[in-house]
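Model the whole thing, not chain by chain.
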Amino acid sequence: MTDAIQPAIKAEGLSKSFPGVRAVDALSFDVKAGEIFGLVGPDGAGKTTTLRMLAGIMPPDSGTAMVGGFNVVRDPEGAKHALSYMPQRFGLYEDLTVEENIRFYADLFGVKRTERDTRSVELMKAAGMSEFPKRLAGKLSGGMKQKLGLVCALIHRPKVILLDEPTTGVDPVSRRDFWRILYELVTDGVAILTSTAYLDEAERCHRVALLHQGKLLFCDTPANLKAEMKKGVLSVTSNDPRSLRSCLQHAEGISSLVMTGDGLHVVVDNAARRIPEFEALLKGAQVPCDPIQQVAPTIEDLFVDAVGTGEPAHA
Amino acid sequence: MSLTRLLAVARKEIIQIIRDRRSLGIVIVMPVTLMLLFGYGVNLDLKGMPVYVVDQEGSQQSQDLLKHFQNSEYFHLVRVVSGYPQLTRALDDGRAKMGVVIPWDFSERLRDGRPVQVQALVDASDDNTANVLIGYAQAVVQGYSGERQINWLGRRGLSVQPVAISVQTRTWYNEDLESSAFIIPGVLALVMSVIGAFLTSLTIAREWERGTMEQLISTPVSAMEIMLGKLAPYFVLGIFDTVVGALIAIYWFQVPFRGSFATLMFASAMFMIVVLSLGFFISVLAKSQFAASQIALLITFLPAFLLSGFLFSIEQMPIALQWITRILPARYYVSVLKKIFLKGTPASMLYADLVPLAVFTFVLALLATRSFHKRLE
């Protein structure tokens, strides 16, 4: 099987500039078949531009990319048979029904009628929307729309799926359905590249790439990324998080602070050394707090820390 | 090129047209409305123009002359007023288009065989109407004058020599000189401009505006399939409206139809491709529905209305404008329409119009296919 050896997506030095902005800067990564790969980063990090270039609808300034066995820069139309792209903005026809949208996309990809019928029943069931074949797409809820988008994207059994922030504005139940479908797909050897601004969602990916200002900061499995984080993460909780923050803000050894519901996540250079220091500092300022604990870093800690210092780490 | 994909796009477009009341309304109501509007509303014939009279004499003879005016279908004697002030006011506020003043010594001079002048005051704010009125008025007065001479000679026992030379006019092609027969065939060009350019100008722009284009161009459908699939339903609708329009012209307005229906359809199909291509091209460039529809009206509907020879004859335009009309496809189509309807000119004698139309068809279709790319800027 060549698929197992050759990555389903291979981006090499992709770059794209718009007037005044370097949207994507020499980006290289690859996604294997059967893998969910997350592109993580704030708005303007270059996620959408990257996905558009890989979908063959925006030519890069330089660099090249293979998608589903096609060179998407030289032969974008060939690659389009193998891939599915779901843009960030709902891309289906609101004045067509669920069924009509599915049929339209099935026809564009040359899916035979019988195949289309069995496949759409299967997908609609998985998406939990079997009851709405005659409903206009414009009348669906946000979550339903995204799931319909996914159904249309999957109707031709693509090898590569490109999703641009697919779960933005989607309710938790639909979001869970959505991810369940994605996990089922990868067992069939589909490669999924999804962008997300939700850092908790990044943890669900097999591998993630952190993008910032068009550059790749990190690229690894969530577990490895967290393990490689040399710095310690301290959880400081208090019933007065505001005072906590103002007290610790300028303390020594802190590289970043993240507010949580009941306190702070503090990234520090040396956990063992800083815990007693901070406790003493808070006591002196008479800020009530629970005992400080060292916790496992989240992707968010890592990301905020990296973006905050602007230090590109090893990729 | 895949027929399945082309048909998928066409099918999708048809569903969208049917569900969009606005475009459906334009397709169904507009041709009929335009036909009725121009058939009844625009009338270039001058008939029953209101005339006020100042009869300073009030004699048998002056009444005779006025009767001649009254008998002409071009004039309608509204009322006789007592003097210039009332006449001036009537002309000022538009109640009268012309005033006729008969002098106090009208019958006396006639009796003595002295020349007599009848004054006509004409509202020339519309120069064309004024010229026509003056001509008609002169004809009426000359007719009266001729009659009097014959009577005068007859009373003296002299036989009358018939006038040696006279012009016998026969109007061809539009025998009744009805302006509606001249106007209505051209309405078809307007109908097609609206269906073709205005409606299609929205199709591509709408996809960009609603965000559906991004997903569409990420599929294997080709630019050509998108274009043909989108335009095919409008082509059918345009041809349908042409037939409806032609039937209204022939059976409702009784416009003579002397040419071949096949030639009409052939020319209409070419013109339809011209306006569809233009509409598509505009839509690709504009990327917003509002801008696209405005541009489409500006470059197709207005020229078809004003410069195609539909209402205003090209021969009477300033030379510079006449040259501009040569680059307007509508001009050739309107010319073909009038010739087919009124003259029954066979296709073999329509080359001067059909060849330029074919060139436009080819060039604009090529332009449209080249304009659209499956790419984001």
